[in-house]
Every structure is written in C-alpha cells, then in structure tokens.
Design goal:
heterotrimer; A alpha+beta (379); B mainly alpha (326); C alpha/beta (366); B: 326 residues; mainly alpha; MetI-like fold; two-stranded antiparallel ribbon; globular; C: 366 residues; alpha/beta; D-Maltodextrin-Binding Protein, domain 2; 2 domains; 10-stranded mixed sheet; 10 strands; 38% helix; disordered N terminus
C-alpha cells in the first residue's frame, strides 16, 4: 500500500476534521476542532500543555474516540477503525521503544505485525536504519543508544511500513537544545524525502516555525489560528497567538481611530492583523509589541525608524551574550511595563538601571487586538 | 556548603525554636544522629556489616539447620532402639529412591508446582493488568481489596472454607442438586488440591505482577498498536516480555510455595494426594524416622533450589539482555 | 506456689488436700506416706482434644487437683509431635516439656525402646488392675495401659438398608467407591485386612501379603485418609459411608446427632490400648507427683468417670459400662470378648510401624 497519491484522488485531503470534540469528565479537552491537512504537508499543532493538542493527536491515531464530529483520513471515515488498522506511524513523547528488542527488531516490528513478507524485512530495516543514519547500530538495544539515536530508531519504526500519516507527539521535548535543533532539521529532511503527511505536536514555537508548512495554534481545547508559519508570525489572529509566538509586551488601553491605542491619555499608533477582528474605537483593546522591535534612544528623542516613542525608565538590563534584554517601566503610561531587546549591543550605548530613555517602535510592529470580551488573554 | 560550615552552624549558640516545633520524625532522626556520633569514626566501615548482621544470623541459622539435617540424613534409624545409627550410610536416600510413595509425592509436588504456577500466572496477569490500567478509581479499589482480602484469611481457614462449599452437602452440590444433578465428590482429589493451591497463590502472583505491569508504560502499548499490533499481539510481543521480571518473580514465589506446600494436600487431598512436605511430616512425626525425614527434606530443598535457579537464570538472561554488552 | 517441704507451712489449701486424701485413701495411698516430696505448682499432661481431654479432666485431673492441690494443665500438642521434643530434651539433658504423656501404646513403645520413659513398676494401684495394664515384651513398666479400644467398622445406617455389614469385605463394594475412610497411617487396619485378605494373625509380621493385597484392592476404591476429627466431620457432612475408626469417634459423632452405627465384623477387629507414661529428666519431686497422677488414673473412681466419657473399657476391675455400650462388641470386658478381637503386641508394632507405614503409603500415594 504505497503512500503515493492516486492522481484521481489528488484533491482529497490527508486529514479532514469537522467539529471534533472530546470531553474527560468535566474537562472539555477539545471543542469543535475543524481543519484539513493536504497530502504531503507538515502540520504542527502548537499550544501549551492542556490545550488539547495531544487529544487531537490521539483521536487521529485512534487511541481515543471523539464524542462528536467527523474525522476522515484520506477521505475515509475512521471512527470505527482501531489504531492498529490505521495506516498511521507515530513517534511518541517518551519514544516508547521496546526495550527488550534490538534497534533492528524495533524497526522490524511494524513490518512483522503488518505481515510483510519475512524475506523483505531485513533489507527494508537496513534501508530505514540508513535513512535515519543508524547504519551498523541495528543490533544494539535502546538502552545502549544515545538519546538522539533512540530518537532515530523511533522515527525509523514509525516510518518503515510506509504509513500514510506520521504523527509526532512532542518527541523532541526531552532533548537538549542543540540536539533538538539538529533533530528538527532531520525530521524535516526525512519528511521531505519520503513525502509523508506529518502532524507534529509541540509547545515550542521555534520548532513549529522551523519544521512546518502549516501551523495550528490551540488553547483551551480550541483552534485559535490555522496558518502558514510566516503568516502566523506576521499576522497573529489572536493576542494569545501573538503571545505564544514570542510577543513580550501587551499594553492595555482603549481603541482609537487611526487605528491606535489610547493608554493613559497617550495615543499610540498601530495596526490591526489579518484574521483578527478590528478593535472598535472606544472599547477596551490591547497593543502587542515584540521586544526586538523596540528601539531605545536618548530621553526625549524619537529613536531611529520609530513612528512613536514613550518615556521609559530602565529597571533592569540583562546581558544575554548576543543581546541585551531591558526591562522598562513607562511612567507616562501609568506605570505599564515594556521589554526591549538590543540585538546589537556593541553598536549602541548600554543603558544602566535608573537611566531615563526613549522607547520607540514602528507603527507596523504595534499590533492592535480587541479586548472587549477578555478571552484568550495572557495571564 | 563545606563540612566545616555545617559543623560551625551546629555549634552556634543562639535562641532556638522550641523542640516541639519540629516534627517528631525530625527529632527522632536528630537523636539517632547524636547517638551515631558516639560510634568511632574509624569503625565507620563496620556499620554496613553490622546492619547485615540480623540477616546473616538468620541465614546462618538456616544453614546450621541444614547441616543438622544433612548429618541426620546419613544415619539410618534402628527401630529396635529408635535411635539413629552411629555411622554414616546412604541408606535413607536408597530407601527414598526405592519408595513408590516418594516418587508419587515428588511427581505430584512437581506437577502441581508447574500447573499452579501456569494457571496462577494466566489468571493473575489479566487481573493485575486491569488493576494497573483501569481509569476508574472505584474499580481499582475493588480489585485491590479483592487482592488483599485473602491475605487476611489464612491458608487453613480458606481450605476449610472450601470443604464447606464443595462438600457432599455443600453449597455447590446443593445448587447442582436443585438442578437435578449430583451430588458429586468434588473434594479430596488431586485436582481439588490444585484448585485450592491456585486460589491460595493467586493473590501472591497478582501482587508480584502488578508493579511489573505498572512499569510498562501505556505509551509503549500504544506504540505497538500504531505499529499494527492487535491487543493480543501487543500483550504477547510487548507487555509480557517487558513484565518478565515480575512474571519470573511471581513464578518463583508460586512454584516454590506450591512445591513445598503441606496444608492444602493435607486438608483438601483426603489423604491420598500427599506432597513431599506431607511425606516429610510423616517421617518426623508418625514413624519418628528423623533420618529418612531429613533425607527427603534435603531432596525437597534441592528440588526447590533447582526450580528457583532455573527461574533466576531465566531472569538473569532477561536482565542481561536488557543491559547488554557495553 | 506450693514448693515448701512437707508440713511447712500449713495452709488452708494443704489442709483441704489432706482431708481429701483421707477420704480418698484407697485412691491415693501414697499421700499418706510420711516422706512426701515437695509439690510442684502444676503438672502438665499431654492429651487429645475434644471428648478426650474433657473426660480426662473430669475423671482424673480435676479430682487429682482437689486431692493434692496440684494444678493440672493439659497440653493438646499431637502425640506424635510432642514425641520428638521429649526425645530431644532427654538427649540434651533438658527438662522435658510435659510431665505425663497420654499416648497410644504403640507410639509410647517407641519412646520406651529409646529409653526415655521412667519406670512405673512401683505404682501401688498397678497391683490391682487387669493384666492388660502392663505392656507386653518390654523391660519393666515404662508405660501403663489405661484402657482398650477397638478399631470398629463404623457405617451410616442409611447406606445399609439391609442391615449392618458383617465383613470387612464390604469396604471393597463398588457402591462405596470414594466413600470409605481409613486412618492416614493405616494404623488399626492391618490385622483386619490380613484376615479379610485370607491371611492369619499369627503371620504378622512375618507374612503380610494378604494384608497388602487387600489394601491394594481397597486403594481402587479411592478411600479418604484422615485422623480422628476428620472422621467425625466426614460422617457429619455425608462424605463417607464406612470407615475403620476407633469406636470413640463413631460414638462421639452419634452423640452429636449424626446417624452412625458400628460393628465388629466376622474377621474381628483390632484391639489396641492407650497408656500414660512419664518422661525421664524431670526433677525428682515432679516425677513423683507425675507418677501419683498415673497411679490415680488407674483407680476405679477415676477410671469410671474418665472412661464413661470415652465409652471405652478400662483396666480397673469392676467398672460399670455406660448404658449405651452394654453388650457392645466394641466394649470388650470378658475373655470371650477379647477373643473375638485381633491383638498385635505393641513391641512388634513399634518395631515395624515405620515399615508398615511406608508400605501403606506406597500403596495409597502411588
């Protein structure tokens, strides 16, 4: 059963979910989730723990059943199909390798269970061990392999039987930063090489942006945004999405025409994002600003490239090697706080705690969101 | 935090909170620590041996007893004086070897050890599995109670309970009688003894298996499913091999306890289904032949040790497989 | 605490004991002796439980305490389990765990052969009892037999609508497959099996083929093997129809409302005795009082009450049998009664019991 798409069925999505819902006791883990994933694409479901992303994955794998909604894999309803009959490979959070089997036996396991011709198995196992760069390590047991090598065994095991769909349940979460970045690229490479449709679940925004063609951001069991990584970065449709994608500062105020945000009598110009409802003038609103888009200058000046500036007092200056993070207090805005990052500390003067400075930004970097219903706000 | 810091802090005078402010456990440990200070530091290495002493004493006692038995097993009983011979001989072993009762009871004990172990593992596995996997706390509690309750009821009491239930006028035969069947003799046969032993050993097996099954992550079972394994195949290829230490521990306990059991065959066997332990009892307490009794005891000890060694070797291979060459 | 030498001090209890001793002069002549050793606070008598210890207490122990002031404690350890402990104590020069062992004569004989029994030939009451009281073939009197009993054929009358069985051959009747019971050491059955199998009593122990063949055929009946309490329970629960058991057990079951009867078949039934003995190694005064206990147990007064409870014929002459056992074949009193029964000398039993036991087990466990 090759995963290669039939030309006639090319327009059928790999995954099609309509109103999927799942409840555990009193907790609504998943609320009316609808989305599609096209064949061959790499989707990442991004969200904090408890957002429902793992539930979504378990529904697709077939480990759990939805309370409501419709799920189709490659056009076929899978409600009644048990996990072992779905053509779905999965890499688990804690890898879940079989500790009593060698790496090669682990990789051969899906082939044996799916009754492949025993004569084909060894060569195929070798091929997939080579694919994940584990040539010659097939006779080792999982506890004789390093963390990264175990990861590769898990990938080979999930892919060896040519599943139509590959699911990744935060398999990189437990790795150290360097190895994680390496494995992200590795996943991407293998996924491209095999062209298998992949759904990855993670709470790491960088991982989502690096690996994916498509990202779904979830929170509280709900899908907040379903977009390409760049769109997500540039046009977050929800303040939560903006916050999850690294926006460090939210200023509370009232929406004004322009569009702009009124904070303690100051009018700060900004812009709305595509996909998010525009704040209505006179109603509560939020302005989101990435720390790296804030420019600092001498007090009373308009820092270069800025459309607006406010007076700020440096509370703390944290040296992070390639950059400096400033924690600022804005006395003119009722004591609101702001974060700024100087990504090129050598080029500019360092500010010390207590210094008075001007903090400025370009209008296009100040994203305005409606806050009248107060949902989805960061704590 | 250097050692010197710790010492100076300990010696520092100053207002201290009242002793009662600390939990009792802390104060007990403080007192123990103070008492331990009295122990010369140079003898610190002796402490671990000192702690082993009670266990070593027990093992020593056991070995001493075995030595006494070994000596007695080599002395034949003279039934004109009821005293064991002065000189050593293999007469008792020869007697056991030539005794039909010895072979019958030995075979019966061994067959029971194998059968009871197999049945108990087969029954305890799903029980322990359900207990460790259920998401319903009520069910888990029920299964736990079902597991521990039998431990509060001794083997003899349970055996007599079965006599009441399975007797000619017992509840089972009454129920069969109401259906126009029987009464059947359900008691006092070898299968009755096996049944009683299974019922007695099952909680032991489930208790030993539960932690082993709990140690198999559910994620691994899911991984097997995603690899295309149905649940029975997951059980066979993944859960059972991974729970192997627990299975072997359970097998060890059940098989050695069964092999050496005395009460079940005595109470539920009707006298015709004796095990080796009953034969040993007969020699010591009925015919007063301590020599033959010791010889059979040593043979039984040897059998039990062999069974344990085989199982432990299997466990060792499993553990080695997990650890591997490095 | 009454370990003072004789006459010191004169407590109320001693006074009463003295008075009792006066009235029971025939029972305890030894108490009138001038040099009576110091009394222990208590003596320990090993006994069987149930009806056995109850009747011993009523007939012997309680009156003994009333007469002497010495408390009597009953140790219900099995006779065959106390034996190795006594042997070990005597071997190691320790004080044995009991003062008096109430024992089967065959079992006691093994202790006598080993030489752990005090000689009892100087008991005063031994002069006036039946010859049965003295064990045959042993040196001196290491054991005193106190009564006889018969291994009868007990049966449930419902299973025998045509009347009582007359022969041990009934045990082989296919009707009773799985419903026959024997003692699990085969004890009490060998002579009956020897005769029923076509052999003779005189051939025991020389040629017992007849016995073993009969037992081998009986094995095909899948008999139950047990001990005294088992028989009572099995009759009560309807597990068995026939058994070779001591008449006392059948009688106890009957008194508890179980419909059981018993008979002595034409081949005869084994008669045996139980006895009392004192282990060596006790302090001299305790040995003295233990012997006095046995001496009293031989008296007519003691035996009348004790053995009424057991339904067994004693060794004191002139006992009145319990009303329900007058003329019962399991209650032999005359020479003619004993002539119908099968007696194997205890010494032969003691010397061969291990061998017979092994043979019996080989057949039954095989």
């Amino acid at each position: 059963m090759p995963a290669a798409a039939h030309p006639a069925a090319a327009d059928i999505p790999a995954v099609e979910a309509r109103g999927l819902a799942r409840r555990y006791g009193d907790a609504q883990a998943l609320r009316a989730a609808s989305f599609t994933v096209a064949k061959g694409r790499f989707l990442t479901v991004l969200g904090p723990s408890g957002s429902g992303k793992s539930t979504l994955l378990r529904l697709i794998a077939g480990f759990e059943r939805a309370d409501a909604g419709d799920l189709r894999l490659f056009g076929r309803p899978v409600e009644a199909v048990p996990p072992h009959r779905r053509s779905v490979g999965m890499v688990f959070q804690r890898l879940a390798l079989f500790p009593h089997m060698t790496a090669a036996d682990n990789v051969a396991f899906p082939l044996r269970m799916r009754r492949w011709d025993a004569r084909d198995i060894p060569a195929r196992v070798e091929r997939f061990l080579a694919l994940v760069r584990l040539e010659g390590l097939g006779r080792r047991r999982p506890d004789e392999l390093s963390g990264g090598q175990q990861q590769r065994v898990a990938i080979a095991r999930a892919l060896v039987f040519e599943p139509q769909l590959l699911l990744l349940d935060e398999p990189l979460a437990s790795l150290d930063a360097k190895l994680r970045e390496e494995m992200q690229l590795e996943f991407r490479r293998i996924q491209r090489e095999l062209g298998v449709t992949t759904i990855n679940v993670t709470h790491d925004q960088r991982e989502a942006l690096v690996m994916s063609d498509q990202v779904i951001v979830m929170e509280g069991g709900r899908i907040l945004q379903d977009a390409a990584p760049e769109t997500l970065w540039r046009e977050p449709a929800h303040p939560f999405v903006a916050g999850f994608l690294g926006v460090g500062t939210f200023l509370e105020g009232v929406a004004a025409d322009g569009p702009a945000l009124d904070v303690a009598g100051r009018r700060l110009p900004g812009r709305t994002t595509a996909g998010a409802p525009a704040p209505r003038p006179g109603h509560p609103a939020q302005g989101a600003l990435r720390a790296e888009r804030v420019t600092l200058g001498p007090a009373g000046t308009l820092p270069p490239g800025s459309d607006a500036a406010v007076e700020a007092v440096v509370e703390d200056a944290i040296f992070e090697g390639d950059r400096i993070l400033y924690e600022l207090r804005l006395p003119g805005l009722g004591g609101a706080r702001l974060r700024a990052i100087d990504a090129d500390p050598g080029a500019r003067a360092r500010h010390a705690p207590g210094d008075r400075v001007a903090a400025g930004w370009a209008r296009g970097d100040f994203l305005l969101f409606d806050a009248s219903d107060r949902t989805g706000r960061l704590p | 935090m250097s050692d010197a810091d710790g010492r100076s802090a300990r010696g520092r005078a100053g207002p201290r909170p009242p002793l009662a402010a600390y939990p009792l456990g802390w104060r007990v440990l403080d007192a123990l620590e103070a008492a331990a200070e009295l122990w010369p530091r140079r003898w610190g290495g002796a402490v671990k041996w000192l702690m082993l002493l009670p266990a070593l004493a027990l093992v020593g006692l056991l070995l001493w007893g075995l030595g006494v038995m070994a000596d007695a097993s080599l002395r034949a009983m003279d039934f004109r004086t009821y005293r064991l011979a002065e000189e050593w001989s293999a007469a008792n072993f020869a007697k056991a070897w030539g005794s039909a009762a010895f072979w019958a009871t030995a075979r019966r004990s061994l067959v029971a050890a194998v059968a009871v172990t197999a049945i108990c593992l087969a029954l305890a596995l799903p029980y322990a599995y359900a207990m460790t996997r259920t998401r319903r706390p009520g069910l888990r509690r029920l299964l736990l109670i079902g597991l521990f309750l039998p431990f509060f009821i001794g083997q003899v009491v349970r055996a007599y309970g079965w006599l009441i239930l399975l007797g000619q006028q017992g509840m089972v035969n009454q129920a069969l009688g109401a259906a126009g069947l029987g009464p059947y003799r359900l008691l006092f046969e070898y299968p009755t003894v096996i049944f009683g032993l299974v019922q007695y050993m099952l909680p032991f097996a489930a208790l030993m298996l539960a932690p082993a099954l709990a140690a198999v992550p559910e994620e691994v079972e899911r991984a097997a499913a995603s690899c295309g394994a149905s649940w029975p195949r997951t059980l066979w290829h993944v859960v059972i091999p991974m729970a192997r230490p627990g299975l072997i521990a359970a097998a060890l306990v059940v098989s050695t306890l069964t092999l050496t059991d005395f009460a079940m065959p005595a109470i539920m066997g009707g006298g015709g289904s004796d095990f080796l332990a009953n034969l040993v009892y007969d020699q010591f307490f009925r015919t007063s032949d301590a020599g033959l009794g010791s010889a059979i005891t040593l043979i039984l000890t040897f059998l039990g040790t062999t069974v344990a060694a085989v199982l432990l070797t299997m466990a060792g291979i499993a553990a080695q497989g997990g650890r591997g060459r490095r | 605490m009454n370990r003072f030498p004789n006459g010191l001090p004169l407590t109320r209890r001693r006074l009463m004991a003295g008075a009792a001793a006066l009235t029971g002069a025939t029972a305890m002549p030894g108490l009138l002796r001038a040099q009576e050793p110091g009394k222990p606070a208590e003596i320990i008598v090993r006994a069987w439980g149930g009806v056995w210890v109850d009747s011993l207490k009523r007939g012997v122990s309680d009156p003994f305490t009333a007469m002497t002031g010495i408390a009597v404690r009953h140790d219900l350890t099995e006779d065959n389990e106390i034996k190795p402990r006594i042997w070990a104590a005597v071997d190691q020069g320790r004080v044995p765990p009991i003062h008096i062992n109430w024992d089967t004569t065959a079992n006691a004989t093994s202790s006598a052969l080993r030489g752990v029994c005090e000689d009892l030939s100087d008991l005063e009451n031994l002069g006036g009892v039946l010859p049965l009281a003295r064990p045959i073939g042993l040196d001196g009197v290491p054991i005193v037999n106190t009564y006889a009993y018969v291994y009868v054929l007990a049966y449930r009358p419902e299973a025998f609508p045509d009347g009582a069985p007359t022969s041990w051959q009934v045990l082989l009747d296919p009707r009773f497959r799985g419903r026959v019971a024997l003692y699990n050491d085969g004890i009490g059955f060998h002579p009956a099996a020897q005769i029923a199998g076509g052999g003779t009593l005189a051939d025991i122990p020389g040629n017992m083929d007849a016995c073993w063949q009969f037992i081998t055929r009986l094995k095909e009946q899948r008999p139950l093997l047990g001990e005294d309490p088992d028989f009572t329970a099995w009759f009560q629960n309807g597990e068995i129809d026939v058994a070779c058991t001591i008449s006392s057990n059948a009688r106890e079951a009957k008194m508890n409302g179980v419909n059981v009867a018993w008979t002595v078949p034409v081949e005869g039934a084994k008669v045996d005795t139980d006895g009392l003995w004192v282990p060596r190694g006790l302090p001299a005064n305790e040995t003295y009082w233990a012997k006095q206990y046995i001496n009293f147990a031989l008296s007519r007064e003691a035996q009348q009450v004790w053995l009424d409870g057991l339904g067994l014929p004693g060794v004191a002459p002139g006992l009145t049998p319990p009303a329900d056992l007058v003329g019962d074949p399991s209650y032999p009193t005359s020479e003619a009664d004993f002539a119908r029964l099968l007696l194997v000398p205890p010494r032969i039993q003691a010397e061969h019991s291990a061998e017979w036991f092994a043979r019996f087990k080989d057949i039954m466990q095989g």
